[in-house]
Amino acid sequence: MPLHTDRTFEEQLGHLRASILEMGGLVEDQIAQAIRALIGRDEALARATIERDHTVNRLDVEIDDLCIKILALRQPAARDLRLITTALKVTTDLERIGDLAAHIAERALEIMAEPDLKPYIDIPRMADQARDMVHRALDAFVREDAELALAVCAADDAIDQLHAQLFRELLSFMAEEPRTIRQAMPLLFVSKALERIADHATNIAEMVIFLVRGRSIRHLDTLPRTL
To answer: What is this structure's pTM?
Structure first.
């Protein structure tokens, strides 16, 4: 990443990167806490996860304000301009990940009064993979590592496959025994939320590639093998 002779400008960019990492760490924790609340039937943890979304929203606003301030006062060009516009998009995806984690916690509250439909195996696996994608996408952003970002994009297929598998399984439960609908439907929403979290991590990774290489890979039918 380039260094500037203007020390204040470099400090602002450093603060921007640190703030995005802080926001990313919060949403990673939200995902983990929401899943723990679901599996452990922990009402207090579920409500705390929902409440914590306000902190993520506050950081989203603060980072947007910082980006606008830098754009107005510094009028960055070339790579610096790509950094600011990428940061604006990254925070949007992180804010939506935080919303999805809160929705998972809400679904956890819904089914706490119901008996477990099946052992929790696929959902924790999906959550671990989705969190890892978010973590690596943010790591790629801070390190400006396009190859790591490309690897994050490639990991999305595994999440999609797990979601499709769980969707079919839960659909079978509901078809064979309609009384399971009250338990299965919230789990379907959880699975979809985790699949969407992975999509947002992919969005972040795609923006990192644009930042580093000035190249958009969005909407490509197949991912390039290398950049």
So the answer is: 0.90
